[in-house]
Amino acid sequence: MKKLFVILSLVLLPLAGFANEGEVELESANIDLTDHAAMQRGAKYFVNYCQGCHTLKYFRYERMQDFGLTKEQIKENLLFDKTKKLGALMDNNMPSEEAAKWFGTAPPDLTLTARRREGGADWIYTYLKSFYKDESRPFGVNNVVFPNVGMPHVLMELQGVQEAVVETDEHGNKHIKELKLVKPGKLSPEEYDQVAKDLATFLTHVAEPMKLQRQRIGFWVMLFLFVFFVVSFMLKKEYWKDVH
C-alpha cells in the first residue's frame, strides 16, 4: 500500500504543477484566424518590439503571404536584414550565451508558444496586459501571469505603467487584486488591448499555420467516414441476412 501511495504521488505531482499554473484567470482574446488585418498588425508589432530578443525559428518570412502581405511589403517593412531572403527563418542575431548573461536565461523561441501554453491565445493576450511595476525585479517589472519573469516590458511605451493593488485575505496571504494604470502610454487602454489581441492572433497563426485548412479537411474526412459507415453497415446486413 505504501508503494502504491508513493507511485500515485509521483504520477499526480505534475498535475499539481499544472493546477498551480492555471491559478490566474485568463482573459478571453476572442481571436479570429480569418482576420488577416489583425495578423498583419501583429506581425508588425512582433518584428518591431519582440524580434530583437525572441525568434520564430520554425516560421519563414514568406509565410506571411498567407495572410495577405505581398513579397514587396514583407521585404520593405518586415525584413530589416536585407542580406536575408524571403525564405529565411525569422531568427535574430542575438547570441544565446550572451543573452543568458543579460537576462538570466536566453529568451525563448516563440513559434510554438500558442500551442505550448495552456490557454493559447488567451494566455498570450493576458500575459501582454499583465505587466506591473516591481522595483525588486532586475528590469523593474513583474507579471501576474508569469511571476518573476526575466524580461522588460517592451510594450511599456504603448501601454504605460501599471501598479499592483494588493489585498490580504483572512489567512494573512497577500495577492494581487487588480492592476491599476498609473502612467498612461501612447495608446489608450482600448487601443493597447487591440495590440495584445493582434499579437496573440499572429502568434497563434504562427504556431499552426494550417489550422483552418486542417479543420476544413477534418470535416470532410469525418463526413466520408460517416457515409462509409452507413454503406458498410447496410452491406453487412445484406451479406448476413440469410445466415440467421
Fold topology:
Blueprint: H1 2-21, H2 36-50, E1 56-60, H3 71-77, E2 89-90, H4 96-103, H5 113-116, H6 121-128, E3 131-133, E4 141-143, H7 156-159, E5 160-168, E6 174-184, H8 189-207, H9 211-240
Antiparallel strand pairs: 1-2, 3-4, 5-6
Helix pairs in contact: 2-8, 6-8
Structural features, described:
47% of the residues lie in helices and 14% in strands. It is α+β, with helices and mostly antiparallel strands and 244 residues long. The protein folds into two domains: 20-209, Cytochrome Bc1 Complex, Chain D, domain 2; 220-244. The chain has a two-stranded antiparallel sheet with strand order 1-2. The protein has a two-stranded antiparallel ribbon with strand order 3-4. A hairpin with a 7-residue loop joins strand 3 and strand 4 (141-143). Helix 2 (36-50) crosses helix 8 and helix 6 (121-128) runs antiparallel to helix 8 (189-207). The radius of gyration is 24 Å and the shape is extended.
